[in-house]
Amino acid sequence: MLKRLRLLWKHRWTDPGLSHRWVDDAAADRLRARVQASERLHTGQIRVCVESALPSSYLWRLRAGEALQGAVRARAMTWFGRLRVWDTERNNGVLIYLLLAEHAIEILADRGVAGAVPIGFWEDLAARLAGQLRDGKTEAGLAHAIDEVGALLVAHHPRSDLDAPDNELPDAIVRT
User: Fold this and answer.
1) Which of 19, 96, 103, 132 has a CB 3.0–4.6 Å from the CB of 141, allowing a cystine?
2) Are residues 48 and 143 in contact, defined by beta-carbon separation less than 8 angstroms?
3) Residue 8: burial class (beta carbons within 10 Å; 0-12, 13-18, 19+)
4) Is the dihedral of CA 62, 65, 69, 70 positive or negative?
5) Domain range for 72
6) How many domains does the chain have?
């Protein structure tokens, strides 16, 4: 019980503005432009969400001894739905989710992308991103992650001359 209270306290008192300090307005704008540039080359959709802390409801649902990673993944899946990443025409959206209070990273891909990815690709990408975040290179790490996801989407979902230059989802970086 004490462990749960500490966890609740940590997330409740994590500064909600933390995500805006980790990715300031200028960096968010540069990352948005990078997503836009990437999406000109493929038909996929890339979203990035940086969240300061989990809502208390996710923490209260944890059972004794249950790993927090399940709650982090559930929250990433909630954002995957809320941002409509699952709802693209070709089912080829990807979400890069950072939870700052836990230094956690989740990368979720829709079914049109997930089957084309080599085993361990997302875990390796998350590990490289985590390393750059630990080194204080937030923008560079996210830029590199966007580039790698973009390269994967170009390889499996390239934009052809016949494809309309659509943009199904907003490119803005979500910071909460």
Assistant:
1) 132
2) no
3) middle
4) negative
5) 2-175
6) 1
Distance CA 148, CA 140 (A): 12
Range list of β-strands (E), 41-160 = 45-51, 93-99, 104-109
Annotate 69-92 with b (16+ C-beta within 10 A) or e (fewer).
eebbeebbbebbeebebeebeebb
Q: In what order do the strands lie in the sheet with 45-51?
A: 104-109, 93-99, 45-51, 174-175
**Angle at alpha carbon of residue 132, lines to 128 and 138, rounded to 5°:** 125
The answer to pTM > 0.85 is yes
The CATH number assigned to the domain holding 94 equals 3.10.310.50
Paired tokens of 25: 């307005």
C-alpha to C-alpha distance for 97 and 115, rounded to whole angstroms: 20
| Sequence-separated (6 or more) residues with CB below 8 Å from residue 126 | 105, 106, 107
**How many beta carbons lie within 10 A of that of residue 52, not counting itself?**
20
Q: Flag whether pLDDT at 65 surpasses 80.
A: no
